[in-house]
Structure formats: structure tokens, C-alpha cells
Amino acid sequence: MRIQIVGRGRMATALEAALAGGPAGEVELLPLGGRGTDGAGSDAVLLAVPDAEIAKAARGIRPGPLVGHCSGATGLDALAPHEAFSLHPLLTVVGPGARFEGASAAVDGTTPRSLALAERLAELLGLEAFRVAGRDRAAYHAAASIASNFLVTVEGFAADLAGTAGVPRRALVPLVRAAVQNWAELGAADALTGPVARGDAATVQRQRDAVRERMPERLALFDALVSATEDLAALAATKEEP
What Pfam families would the database entry show (predicted)? Predict the structure, then answer.
């Protein structure tokens, strides 16, 4: 299978490095393609380009090869009229040395053949593949953004507020790791701790007063997080009832 990856960014270079180290003889990687690549000489083309550029890049591919993209939110219609597939590694990629093993990937295909290719590429990368249909892609991608991007935003808020008390960001790291590990093992309701979970309204109010005084621009975010946490605590309480 002669595959050409199109793109010059972090995902493209990481995929190239990872697939190049796969089983010999199964995948022949053509040189990374840039703007205007037509896929000549390839059996499959994988577009690792920004979402807004997928449709344009796909239109430039000559008929014949299977054409895929690495977007989590974009449907396969953006690749028409090609026989299409998608492969979205569910992890953060920051450079060519990224390790895919042990993570998951959302895949899809317009034909059994293209879906099989997406699943095989996931396997070669060490990813566990699951299929996400076109109608579910926006919800899937929103969940991924909440789990990664929004988590970073919340931790940034925590670090900035801690800084007003002279507490370094590194002091929060073990707490964050333990919370994420507990969530991974137990689920959200059973992993929840803290004053909201205990029903300690007085402590929550003191926290709110501190946020209002020191970071008033984040008060609405704090209130929204408290409200969502109260809902989660209520769910946890119903689970504990005999």
C-alpha cells in the first residue's frame, strides 16, 4: 500500500514518523505532500491539513486513490467524490516524536474497503479504533475538546488563582494527576471530592469571594463550574442511596 500523507504540520510529521517505523513491506510512504499535491502514484492519500483546507485539498487529488483526513469534526462529504475514510487519533500531538500506542482513534469510511484501511492504519499506529458516524462527529469532537482543551483552560484558571496566593503551578500537579486518575478509574460521580461534594456552602462562598476579589473576570466561569459540580454531586448522592 503506497500512502502519501499531505501536510507539513505536527500531525503530518508525527504520522509519517510513526508509520515509517511500522511493519516492513506493508506500507510504502511516499514523500510528504504539500499544497497542490495530486496523489499521483499513491494507493491512498491521508490529508493532515487544517479542517478549513480539507475540501480544497481533496479536490486537488486525481481520481483513483482512497482519500482520507485526520479531522475529528469534519464529515466524509468533504472528500467527495473520492472513496473516502477518516482517521482521527484521540490524543494531543505536539511534534514528530508523538507516541500513538495505547490511545484510541475515531474512524469511518464510505465503503468497506476504505473503512478497513482506516482501521488497519489505526492498528499499525497502535491505536484502538472505534467508528464514529458522520451525524455524531460534532458531539464526539466537542467531547474531545472538553476533555483536553477545556481541562487546560480550567487548570490555567486554577494556576493563576493559586499564583495570587504565592502558590506555584507545580504544587497543583499531583492534585490534578490524582483527580484525572480517579476519574479514569471510577467515573466522574465517584471521583468527585471537595466542598461542593460535601455540601459545604460556607466554604464555597468564601472561595467565590476570593475569585470575585482577585480574578473578577473569571467569576462567571467559577459560578458555572460550581453549578455543574452541584449537579454531579446530586447524581453521586442518588447513587449512594440504598
Answer: DUF2520, Rossmann-like
**Angstrom distance (rounded) from CA 216 to CA 132:** 40
Its domain, for residue 199, covers: 138-240
Matching residue, cell 506500507: 27
**How many Å apart are CA 227 and CA 44, to the nearest integer?**
48
Considering the domain architecture, whether residues 146 and 208 belong to the same structural domain is answered as: yes
**Grid coordinates of 111:** 465503503
For residues 213 and 179, state if they share a domain: yes
Last residue of a domain, which of 115, 132, 149? Answer: 132
**Total structural domains within the chain:** 2
Q: Is the pLDDT reported for residue 176 higher than 80? A: yes
Q: What is the pLDDT of residues 108-158, one digit of tens each?
A: 999 999 999 999 999 999 999 999 999 999 999 999 999 999 999 999 999
More confident residue, 34 or 85: 85
Please give the span between the terminal C-alpha atoms of the chain, in angstroms, as a whole number.
58
Q: What does pTM read for this prediction?
A: 0.86
